[in-house]
Amino acid sequence: MNEPTERGPGEGGTPPGGAQAWGPMDAYGTPAAPAAPAPPPPPVDPVPGGEPYHLLARTARNRWWRPVVGTLFVLGLGAVFTLGLGIVLGIVAFASGVDMSDPEALYTEMPLLTLVTTALGLALALPLVLFAVRFIQRRPVGSASSVTGGLRWGWMALCAAVGLGAMLVGWAVSLAYYLLSGQGLGEFEMDWAGWSAFLPAAAVVLVLIPFQAAAEEYVFRGWLMQAFGSFMRTPWPGALISSLIFMSLHGYRDWGMVWVFLFGLCLVWVTVRTGGLEAAIGLHVVHNVGGFLLAAAAGEAATPLDQGSVSWEIMLGPGVELLIFLAVVLPLAKKRNIATRS
């Protein structure tokens, strides 16, 4: 009879240090492979599929506090930026000897600097929205733009072209009303300021106003609508409240308040119906750039910022502009099969 031999590791014997040295065994007595560590959570959650634009924040990470914290971040820090630039403007105006007791002094004596600081303060809200989408709600940045995950540049350009045509028709309607009612040229009556005054103001308008208008769309028709969509599926409470906030942050009174509220409400509607901000941005940019360029031609680049009481006649042209834009863009989106769901 052979003497039993001691088996070493790997030969079916007991491993050095006892049975536990090999870890858990499978059903055949073979050491089982160690369990793989759990993968870390993804940095962002994908948006839910098949949802309209205002519900894209309803991701797996969606919690009640995320849209609340994000809204405080966007509006609060945006107000800080705007206030800070306003203080800088006030200091420069005081040092320049501007009569600060005159409420219109900044618009008449420092129009270009007033326009720059105001437009820049509003434009800075755009990166705030994108930061909040990415790092507070933890979803793709592009979901703030459209259901396809980014801006559809061709579609936005087409909407801007429609907006330009609608604005020109609106101007023609206003001008025809003033002439037929015996009021002369009305709001279009102005003195040419000359190229030396117009060109610097036009450059500021063309560079900053598109970002200012786009930032307002990302805040009011983008962030706020999707923040409300985090809590409820219907878009109407978010549409009404965001439009009221949009109206309150403008300085218009009387018919001007009505116009701004309806303008915001219609842009919410076209955003939901077209699945993104492109149409709203296109119209808003064209509308603002056109108004500021007219003011710059008269040497009054900051006059559109000096808002106040507005008669219904002044709202006639913009109202026609908005109706034409909606009447053309919504059927055009359907004809071109513009995606309205993620």
Automatic annotation (TrEMBL):
Residue span of region Disordered: 1-47
Segments passing through the bilayer: 68-92, 112-133, 153-180, 192-211, 223-249, 255-272, 279-298, 310-333
Keyword vocabulary terms for this entry: Hydrolase, Membrane, Metalloprotease, Protease, Transmembrane, Transmembrane helix
Residue stretches of biased makeup (Pro residues): 34-46
Presence of the UniProt keyword Protease in the record: yes
Molecular function GO terms recorded: metallopeptidase activity
Matching InterPro entries: Rce1/LyrA-like_dom
Signal peptide, first to last residue: none
Span of domain CAAX prenyl protease 2/Lysostaphin resistance protein A-like: 202-289
Pfam families the record matches: Rce1-like
Tagged with keyword tRNA-binding: no
Name of the molecule in the record: CPBP family intramembrane metalloprotease
Organism, scientific name: Nocardiopsis endophytica
Lineage of the species this protein comes from: Bacteria, Bacillati, Actinomycetota, Actinomycetes, Streptosporangiales
